[in-house]
Amino acid sequence: MSWWARSSLRTKIFVAFSALIVAVLAATLTYTQLVVSSEARRTLSRELLTTGQVFDRLMNERATRLQNSSVLLASDFALKRVIATHLDRATYDADTLASAALSYQTRIGVELVWITDEDGVLLAVSPGDAHIGRSMASLTPLREAIETQDSATGIAEIDGRLFQLVAVPVLGPDVIGFLLLGHVIDDAFAARLKSDTASDVSFVTDDRVFASSLPPPSREKYLPSGEFRAGLLRADADHRLSLLTIGGARFLSLVVPVGAHIPKPVYALVQGSYDDALAPLRALTWRIVLIGATALAIALLICVGLAGGILGPVRTLVIGMHEVLRGNLRYRSRIERQDEIGFLARSFNEMVDGLEEREHVKDTFGRFVSRDVADAVLAGRVPLEGERREVSILFQDIRGFTALSQQLDPATLLRVLNRFFTEVVSAVEAEGGVVKQFTGDGVMALFGAPQAREDHAERAVRAALGIVKRLVDLNVLLSEQDLPQLAIGVGIHTGEVVAGLIGPDERVEYGVVGEAVNLASRVEALTKEVTATILVSRDVAARLGERFEMGRAASLPVKGKREPMEVVEVLGFA
Amino acid sequence: MRRLWVAILLWPIVGAAATISGRVTTPDGKPVIDAVVFVQEADPAAASAVRTATMDQIDKTFVPGLLPIVVGTRVSFPNHDQIHHHVYSFSRTKSFELPLYKGEDAKPVLFDKVGVVKVGCNIHDWMSGIILVLPTPWFAKTDSDGLWQIENLPAGHHTIVAWHELSKQKPEETAQPLPAGENVRDLKFTLALGAARPRPAMHGSRRDP
User: Fold this and answer.
1) What CATH class does B44-134 carry?
2) pLDDT in tens, B130-152
């Protein structure tokens, strides 16, 4: 039997509820996971692409602002005049130029101001005085400005730092020099970009990190490095999105070229945390799990409730049924409800009432008739109109009963008698026979009616032997009490009788009538004549086979019969 | 300086005035416009003479854009626009400044050194002019066919040179001796011109007057 079949109804309900909830929960979780994660990725991708555009625009706007400032500065006539001093060594005023550079740096709020001559030779620097007198003509964007005599912007490395630069010509009216202004691209700048775009930005080549919004300890952990970075920053990496797993964290990364080659190309690596984007999903997942757990708990409560409300009464009825099966017909259900369960409980009680009444009838009936007869009648196995059937009839009688009844006081007599009859009834019933009649000092027993038995003759003989055996034991007991011992005679005959209910309505009794009954009584009477304990008619002997030890055989005249009757003595089992 | 002395020594020997003319072309034969052909030797008399010239400002442009003058010339910069101009030069040859003015308010400027003077306007970045200060009064500007002519050149040995703003050769490198006292025709100069420098620009967009 499978586990499921063995399980109680309560377990089944709980398992079914739980399975349903778990299935719904799992499906919901899976679906939510799929939808939300794809949506999160799409949103993050869109955000990063927007960030890339915002980044481009910010850089361009910054360059434009720088350019505008530079152009305005370069138009300053005083500046022109100071720069023009370099055209004539006699008038060259380096100190004024240097102080002008410092002043302009403060005025514009840039991190770098360079003033060069028309060929790109550095005349003044702020801050500091590095590289003065050296040609910077090869530096982007100064080179482009010299070539085009026009302003130019670009990103270049100066003394290990990355600058966003703009170079504008100073006109007088031909180009008499260049003004170069620069914003440094450092961690602070990256941090500002991050505050504008909400994504981490790092300025990198394949082997250097110039600036990053990531705090220094996180850079090694979260910035792709080595070959991995080189692969990421390929030539075709322009505005391409990649999902990277670095240091156990997942990032969606966008590579934006910043148009600088120093000489390796510089890229802005824009990173958005994929895990952060999925954080709401994780929160949602936990909530769903919580809801699911709550639902499971509720299911458990419902099961307990069902057990109390429905299964409890059912279990009570089941226990009641077990009691009834064990024979306790006094058990009654105490369930008082108006629903189906109440109906079941009432029906159960009515059923047990019926059973008890029937049992009571059977008990009462059995006091007057044998239990077997009562059973047969109650079971409807006794046809009311009577029937012919072959039975074996056993008569037993106590020898010298009259003398005994005079010898003993009445109480002792009845006690001895009842004790003996108890043994007789036991021996008869042990063989499926029915004690039909008590005849004062003897009994009449039937075998094969009302319960039909194939081997009624053999059963009758075995019962007779059983009575004799029990009598031996009883006599031992009687002699110990100084009471006279009993001697009996048993006669058995087999023949056809009419069986059925006999007597007026109020005293009807199951019984048999026929010649065979008289003959059985005659056979018993013959035992005194031949001094045998058990005698059976020839009809009986013919049905016994070899299983019994038979004694003398005789053909004796019988009272009321013209022909003598053939009888055989039974001595015991073969 | 030595050449100057040679010229001074030679001066009394020469006789009647001559007219010389010719053409300035690029190596591939195209006419060079606005080239200046002049006698290289200094004329001491030229410095002492009182000369004036004018570089006008009309419609926010210097007119003429190229003004050859003899050293010692006073150039006036009348402003014929209805707006102010602020004419200046940072050139080594002559550095000057005429702060915001209108009409004839600015004083004439004396150009007392030979050389190139680039003139601009502080307000209008695209305004650009050149004043070419020459040692002698014998010069001529080429026309649209690259043709030039110098008249009344005193007799004597002269060296003629050609100048152009974009010329890759210095004037000395173009020097050609001139036979004394003869009218010379078809004196040819060939100038290799560099690429025209882009006009200074602002804001990345070229602005024309």
Assistant:
1) mainly beta
2) 999 998 888 999 999 999 998 88
Q: What pLDDT was estimated at residue B201?
A: 42
**What does the alpha-carbon distance between residue A92 and residue B162 come to, in Å, rounded to a whole number?**
32
Query: Distance (Å) from the C-alpha of residue B49 to the closest C-alpha of chain A?
Result: 29
Domain of A493, CATH number, reads 3.30.70.1230
The residue range of the domain holding A131 is 75-185
Task: Flag if B200 and A175 touch (Cβ within 8 Å).
Answer: yes
φ/ψ of A50, rounded to 5, equals: -60, -45
Q: Which of A185, A202, A218 is the last residue of a domain?
A: A185
Using CA coordinates, name the residue in chain A closest to B94: A88
Cβ atoms within 10 Å of A547's Cβ, excluding its own: 10
Residue B124 has pLDDT above 50, yes or no: yes
| Min Cα–Cα distance to chain A from B178, Å | 35
Tokens of B198: 């882009």
Residue A49 belongs to some domain of the structure: no
For A150-187, write each residue's pLDDT tens digit: 888 888 888 888 888 889 888 888 888 898 888 888 88
The answer on A513 and A426 residing in a single domain is yes
- CATH number of the domain that A139 lies in? 3.30.450.20
pLDDT at B205: 34
Q: Which residue has the tokens 């670095």?
A: A246
pTM: 0.55
Subunit contact A150:B204, Cβ cutoff 8 A: yes
Reported ipTM:
0.71
Specify the residue for token string 């010298």.
A400
Go through chain A and tell me how many residues it has.
574
